[in-house]
Amino acid sequence: FDLSGNGHHAEALAGAPSWNATSFNALPGVVLNQASLELMNSKIEFDGWNELTVVASFYQPTRRNFATLFGKANFVGWAGTVNNDLAWSVFSHRLDMPYNLWGPAIITDSSYECLNSGNTRVFQASEDGGPGLLLLSYESGSLSLRINGKVIHSSPHLSGTIQQKPELSVTIGGHANSSSLNHMVISEFMIFNEDLSVEDRKSTRLNS
Fold first, then answer.
1. Please, which residues have CB within 8 angstroms of residue 39's CB and are 6 or more apart in sequence?
2. pTM score of the predicted model
3. Which residues does 53 contact at the CB level (< 8 Å), separation at least 6?
4. Which of 105, 48, 95, 45 has the alpha carbon at shortest distance from 71?
5. 107-137, pLDDT tens digit by residue?
């Protein structure tokens, strides 16, 4: 349910998403087991942004390789190019041992950046992880990934406007085309058309 009042409610896209009153640290959450959601009216209204902040409370009960966590995309893979069917995404590439390749990718009108190596296993229940809080932020010249308030990755190399993909919805748990389904439990998902300030990040319960 979209608490902003803008009508961007999450609705089932693939599989059978389910609500569980105790699945997220004994609190309510949506269980996506080979299932996904899409945000209503997100194809155009969430397209071609200059800045982006995504906040998500989630975890993965089991590993899923080559699968989207959330984003505006029909692609997963570390060897991306500006021609991939992707505006931005957070995806799992290879989670099986000894690999731990997952993270964000963004394509702009000038380049591609993917930060999916060396990230924490804090969200992976199969590796003694569990529920946590992720913040992805982008503005031209600054891409960063924060997990539980700690900066895990940052890069100054990406610049420009995020690539336009008006045919793709913003999705949770899979590609916009209903494929590449993940396995995750999600409690909260927020998306902003700006790189939030330190104070605004704190208001989302995330310290910078």
1. 2, 8, 9, 10, 46, 169, 170, 171, 172, 191
2. 0.91
3. 135, 136, 137, 138, 190, 191, 192, 194, 195, 196
4. 105
5. 998 899 988 876 788 898 888 889 999 999 9
